[in-house]
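Much of the work behind modern protein science is quiet bookkeeping, done one molecule at a time. The fold becomes a row of whole numbers, each drawn from a learned catalogue of backbone shapes. The protein below has been through that process, and both of its lines are reproduced in full.
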Amino acid sequence: MLNLHLAMEKHNPKILCSQIDSMSDDPVLIKIEGLHPEKTYTLHSFAKPSSDLFECVVNYKADSQGVIDLDKSEATNGNYTGVEPMGIFWSMKPSPTNKNKYPRFAKLDVTTPLEVTLCIYDCEITFEQFQTMRTEKTLDKHKVASTVINRWYMKPGTKRIKLSVKKHGVCGTLFIPSGKGPFPAVITMFGSHPGTMEYKASLLASHGFAALALAYFGAPGLPKLFLSVTEEWTLKLEYFENAVKYLLNHEKVDAPSGVGVMVLSFSGFIGFAMATFIPEVKCLILQNAVTHPAYVNLTYKGMTFAPENWEMSEDFEPNSDSSVLRGLCQFFKSSYSLTAPGPEDLAMKFYDRKDVAYMFIASLDDENTPSEHYANRTQKLLQLAKHPNYVILRYPGAGHLLEPPYIVHHRSSVLKGTVGVESLLCWGGVALPHCKAQEDAWKKQIQFLRNNLVHCVKM
């Protein structure tokens, strides 16, 4: 039953939401009642996940009963059209009021909710008109109702434990679900973002996993930069092995089931190395990931895995917007991206680990990394090895940054830490198919982890 939440009244409109407080990967039902029948209204949703504002402006026509039901009504114009029950969340885009033109939607503090404000206006307003009316301060006289919906990334009762290299040997944040446990263990890593972001690990904890958001550069005790044009960088696989050991030694972790690993983009080859050499790793999820060492040396127990010989393309200008335009894999040249050695030539024979389950997720409109190529290559290697347990997911229209459900789509955003400067990278994708892919992929990732981390999730 919908809970009524009314913040303002005019013509007695009411905003009803199934959950004013909800986990950010859960859908909610929203209905507006008490409107003038057959009249067009404007819905404006907005949120500030960090310092930048994101917003959606969309038009709906009330039905003959004066109702707009987002689960059934069609949006007629705006950030999206058609029936999109969660459109007011995923279709938000950076506000023109931001100083940063290309921000990334990322909730950096998972201990507080993402506050999404929804306002109803009694006239039809386009996104562009909305900005003008905001400047002219004429919006309030048209506002008939508003409410705030809290979207949480960390479930109540979840333990959040900060880890440091100095004290724990690794840097990151561990999330332990409430309850007795023991819980299946998962390590999450991002790509070329310095430090780590916690929202995936905290959401996984809400699904019953002990999840470690692991940093491997850009944090105290770790290398400062992801990539330097003049300096050589070496990653030690022992660091990631220590993370696995720390996790499995935790009293609330189901150690006999081993560890799952989730990687994306640049961290893909780290995931492959962990699956190859660390026996406790039992399943690996790769999202738009590279399959070989890139830019850095990887070492382990006296072995060195050198990167392919990457070269700056001639049009790369690290301090200008032209460097931006197609992402790292377009302004770095490497024949390795287009050709693959045979299985007998690979140093990391991940496909020989028949006790590791693999999931490779490829966005087919990825403009940062040739993800489809890497997915095809991975599938071929696993097929040749007659591997018994792997899944390849391909999503047409989706871009590089596949996030948990209802997070907004980015065609491009500024990345800090790459080549020592801020860089604007192009991620690709189209909003609607991209966001639908996020919903589908997230559900399948969680089920994949449950299926392959042996014991049942205990809440």
User: Anything to note?
Assistant: Residues 1-10, 310-341 have pLDDT under 50 and may be disordered. The chain has two domains: 3-152, 159-452. Residues 159-452 form a domain with the Rossmann fold fold (CATH 3.40.50.1820). The longest strand covers residues 143-152.
